[in-house]
Amino acid sequence: MTNNFEACPDNKFYYLHWPSNTETKAIVLLVHGLGEHCERYAGLADYLNAAGYALCSMDLPGHGQSVGRRGHIDRFHDYEVAVKCLHDKIKTLYPNHEIFLLGHSMGGLIATHFLLGNQQLFKGAMLSGAAIQSPQQPPELQLKIVRLISRIFPRLGVMKLDASQVSKDTRVVANYMGDPLVNRGKLSARLLSEMFTTMNECIDQAAKISLPILIMHGDADVMTSPEGSRLLHEKVSSQDKRLKIYSGLYHEIFNEPEKLEVYADVVRWLDDHSV
Question: Is the pTM of the predicted complex or chain greater than 0.90?
Answer without folding.
Answer: yes
